[in-house]
Amino acid sequence: MSLREGDPAEIGGYPLEARIGSGGMGTVFLARTSSGRPVAIKLIHQHFAGDDEFRIRFRQEVAAARRVSGAFTAAVVDAAPEAEQPWMATAYIEGHTLTQHIATKGPLSGVELRRLAIGLAEALRDIHRVGVVHRDLKPSNVVLSPEGPRVIDFGISRAVDQQTLTMTGRVIGTPPFMSPEQLQAPRGVGPRSDVFSLGTLLVYSATGHGPFDADSPYMTAYQVVHEEPSLGAVPAALRAVVESCLDKEPEGRPSADELLVLLRDLPADLGGTDANEVGAGRTRDMITQHHFAARATPAPTAPATAPAGPDTGSTGTSAGRRLRSRWRPVLAAAVAVAAIGGGAAVLQAGGIGGNSSSGKGDSVAAPGAALPDGFEPWRRTVQGGREDIPDELRCVARGDALFCGGGGVVATRIRVQDGSRVWTAKSPGVPVQGMHLVGATDDTVLGYRFAAQDAPQDPPSEVVAMDADNGRELWSVPSGAQSTAVTGRTRDALVIGSAVVTVDASNSRFEARDAHSGEVRWTTSFPAGTQCAPVAVGPQVLAMCATDAAVDGSEVRNSTLYTVDRASGALGRPIAVNGPAVPVGVANGRLVLLQEHMEGTASVGYDGVARVDPVSGKVTYSRLARTYEGTPGMADGTVYVSGQTGLVTALDATTGRKKWSRQTAVEGASGPEAGAGAVYFSSATGRVVALSPHDGKPLWTTNPQADGSTGEQGASPRVTVAGRVVIVAAAKNTLCAFDAQKPPKAG
């Protein structure tokens, strides 16, 4: 379709060649990069540009599309969600949509239908593995490319760990392909809503009509919620699988991983619609074996102090491990696939990262701590190398200096007193979500740098050391990015004393260097057939490892810990940890991990505590009274889980016993950070709540400081405490500081 009068000649420096199509939200154009690569640019209609609610949705669409860019979706090339007229450029996928194909050539059958079903299930699996729910899977959002089906348009998608944007008075989606829960309670929509939509899509592909079609959208919606689907024309072998996808209750449906197993077991030619065909019965048997049978027999509850077995992380389907990637943009590297953020967890006396929560570190204040001379509350924005992808920063405080990094900022030094910037080092590339500042020593600051898309010769990600006084780069080293699958933490390096331990670019060994000079002190290869991440227990370094097969399959069910000699790097004896577990802190010299409760490969919360004594190698386990959902953390020997809706629960790190629970007004809060007689939790909006560590009593709450998404899970603590000063990091690289004894009033 040629360009029309009034269409722009170029968008964001990309010359336009043709219109691809236009819809209610925007117009899609065909354009070219400077190298001649075709791209599809979605330009939002001008009348939506001033709609704040819509801009938030579009930012979420860009973030989700970046996060899932891979083999089954259109990779994001560029975007400007904050432009006067927002736009996003993705790789151009040649081919007709499923809608166009059915309209011109009719329904699919046989091998072609089976190939489509498997391709879409693979796409859904990859989308869900990075924590995104598409929420608008329909024929017009599926492109039939020569390489297989591609899923596009993440306009109303959301991260699993992020609350649905409130859309007052609106039901967003396409009723014939929406799930019952999406029509009834859209805020509760999860990954299995997409499975329902995929079931309707397969019926449409096989028959040319949906399973709930009616004369009006209202009747269609009613039938989706209350009536049984019409499946008479669906091939019998496929029908049994589709029936399971269209269960009215989400828990009755298979996960995307389970669905893929069922579809791959189908015969190459799906055959006809005779319900008595062998294929149909065999598929139903497979469903029973792989999906429903596991739900029929609950797993026995382990004694409170007994070691958990390999399946204690799940009471339904087999235990697995979801690679965590939150709603932030994800490094696409050179092949435009969704990357896994580096995952070294830094645990210092209960804190995570260089920002200690022990009550004794530089960033934790005693109740009587003083303010810096002349301190006044301040607010600053730190611009990074990619202004189109503003991220959240994370900070550590040392004396009167605040060091922060994240997103497009490798590191910056800011004066605690007034927020003035001393120096900033920028990162030119697309940041990996969750990878912020590595840490700081007395004279060195270490952060992450990501390569620009037009510099493929540069390492995709590096650890960079800078002089703490002036920001001068001292050295850099390529770093790996696979450890999140092992630890559940998105870090790739840690500072121990005057040294920094990193994972090499090939994800095969640890490398220890002098933090200031970069001189290599030792290197240690991972045990054969494993991927590892460094974890700190006070001054001690541990290697947390899982098998290559488990990491590659996104199913880390068990892990192994090794002590690491700080002088030589030599690994000690192996310490086995049962069940998928996330390290959260240190208590009495023991590493504390929360054990995950899994549904398929998705974590649905935490139901146990494991404690590892690195000296004796002993591991003890305690069951929690229930499964707690949210973001885990630890401070002063107490484990905290901050829920998506603002519920904070404090748990005893030794027994797993609940100390208290408190409902707060801070949704999607990360934390804790301890200091000045309180524990602090904060969301991406910069809203902070201070709670009493003894009983959870709210001491004060602030208003939001930035326009950010709430409901996120898994984020590292956003609050830093320097004496009496509380510094909070919020969305769009926003930093705010105030006196803990005179917090901003919430109005």
UniProtKB/TrEMBL annotation:
UniProt keyword Nucleotide-binding present: yes
Low complexity biased stretches: 296-320
Polar residues bias: start-end ranges: 700-713
Pfam families found in the cross-reference section: Pkinase, PQQ_2
Keyword tags: ATP-binding, Kinase, Nucleotide-binding, Transferase
Binding-site positions, ATP: K42
InterPro entries with a match to the protein in the record: Kinase-like_dom_sf, PQQ_b-propeller_rpt, PQQ_rpt_dom, Prot_kinase_dom, Protein_kinase_ATP_BS, Quinoprotein_ADH-like_sf, Ser/Thr_kinase_AS, WD40/YVTN_repeat-like_dom_sf
Domain of life: Bacteria
SMART domains reported for this sequence: PQQ, S_TKc
Keyword Transferase part of the UniProt annotation: yes
Domain Protein kinase residues, every copy: 14-266
Start and end residues of each stretch annotated as Disordered: 296-323, 354-381, 693-717
Name used for this protein in its record: PQQ-binding-like beta-propeller repeat protein
Organism: Streptomyces mutomycini
